[in-house]
Write a structure and sequence with these properties.
3-stranded antiparallel sheet; 14 strands; 408 residues; HNH endonuclease; 3 domains; hydrolase; alpha+beta; DUF222
């Protein structure tokens, strides 16, 4: 192990800058093989630790829980490692390819489903040649893309229990969310085919409706924005289940000095689930929110609190929806149900909550306007949009010439 770690230190010390394409790819290929071999040794060691009850040394019952707590693996990843370790004894072809670095850790976890107790019992009852299955599936894993391995394993398991009861699709659904130091989150989810189809259909409807001129977002960014938009729509509808006796809403706590200050104010506001954001982001959220004044004492305890006031009353919002018909940012046109009511002059800086001081903006373009872009309504009723550098964003055939005349 000491020699291995020393070799890794030597690799990490290498200067990669002089290398070019072929040399880098060759190095990467060898590292990936080594990574697979490392994963095979991890799985083999985890299996021996499971058989010997090694987790008990640290006061835990299972290696899955040990991997979660001591190795900081996610629940799904810890289960995959344990499953791959258990499969080594039943799938020798896979074990050999795994140890040689020809099969990835993720593929080994997939093939490990074939060796789970229930699948083994069904195979034995039907006289299935598990050695042949092992050989065929390992060949697929070594020679074909990952998706083909998943399809082959599912095909085998479906036919193995073709007469069994239809499994409950909800049992395999998983969603885990990890919060990072800056308040952002990342996660992993597993959905059955129907659940996945529902999610993709819902996201795609928002993605396609939200496309606008000059959209340079990647597909991944579009889908992430669509997911946030779906959440916005549900929160705004008021039809979600009650949460602690109140309608669910995004909570932001920020000091009045930071709220009225035009500076960014990094780390000045705190969200309901504990994340910290800047005062600038808090001001954007407050554009179309409900304000509650709370006076805090020197010991951090509330001394007084005022009545919650909706900054944009319903009649102003309805009027803005009728007037604007959707997001007014040039080239967008997202529907009114996706939009916040933006104060052209921030209310914290004296701007009135009135129709004349309001503009409908979708979440993405509302953020843009709070980061230097500007929208302005002309006397003829048209909206115009400017970039932070002062140039105007124009759309349509005349975008390189003077503004087009207003429609009659």
């Amino acid at each position: 192990m000491e020699q291995l770690l020393a070799s890794l230190d030597a690799l990490a010390a290498e200067d990669l800058a002089p290398l070019f394409g072929p040399a880098l790819l060759d190095r990467l290929g060898r590292l990936l093989v080594a990574q697979n071999r490392f994963a095979a040794e991890v799985a083999r060691t985890v299996r021996e630790a499971e058989v010997s009850g090694a987790a008990e040394v640290d006061g835990l019952k299972t290696m899955t829980s040990w991997l979660r707590g001591h190795a900081h693996l996610s629940t799904s990843e810890a289960a995959r490692v344990v499953r791959a370790g258990r499969a080594l004894a039943h799938l020798p072809a896979m074990a050999t390819a795994f140890a040689a670095g020809d099969v990835t850790a993720e593929q080994a976890g997939l093939l490990g489903r074939v060796a789970e107790p229930e699948a083994l019992a069904l195979a034995a009852g039907q006289g299935v040649d598990l050695g042949g299955v092992d050989t065929v599936l390992t060949e697929v894993a070594v020679t074909r893309p990952h998706a083909d391995t998943a399809k082959a394993v599912h095909h085998y398991l479906d036919h193995l229990d073709a007469d069994g009861p239809e499994p409950d699709p909800t049992e395999g659904r998983r969603l885990s969310i990890a919060r990072h130091a800056d308040g952002s989150i990342s996660g992993r989810f597993d959905l059955d085919a129907v659940g996945g189809e529902k999610l993709q259909t819902a996201l795609e409807s928002v993605v396609q409706s939200g496309r606008c001129a000059g959209d340079e977002r990647t597909r991944a960014q579009q889908q992430a924005d669509a997911l946030v938009q779906l959440c916005d729509n549900q929160l705004a509808s008021g039809q979600l289940p009650m949460l602690r006796g109140h309608k669910p809403q995004v909570l932001v706590k920020v000091g009045i000095e930071d709220l009225v200050d035009a500076a960014t104010g990094a780390g000045a506001a705190k969200l309901g689930f504990g994340a910290t954001i800047s005062a600038a982001r808090a001001r954007r959220i407050a554009c179309d929110g409900t304000l509650t004044r709370i006076v805090m004492g020197p010991d951090g305890k509330p001394l007084d609190y005022g009545r919650s006031v909706r900054l944009v009353p319903p009649h102003v919002r309805r009027a803005a929806e009728v007037r604007d018909g959707g997001c007014v940012f040039a080239g967008c046109g997202a529907p009114t149900s996706w939009c916040d009511v933006h104060h052209l002059l921030e209310w914290a800086n004296g701007g009135q909550t009135s129709l004349d001081n309001s503009a409908l903006l979708c979440e993405r373009h509302h953020t843009k306007v709070h980061h230097g872009f500007r929208v302005e309504r002309q006397p003829d009723g048209r909206w115009r949009t400017w970039r932070p550098d002062g140039t105007e964003i124009r759309t349509g055939p005349g975008r390189t010439g003077p503004p087009l005349p207003a429609a009659a």
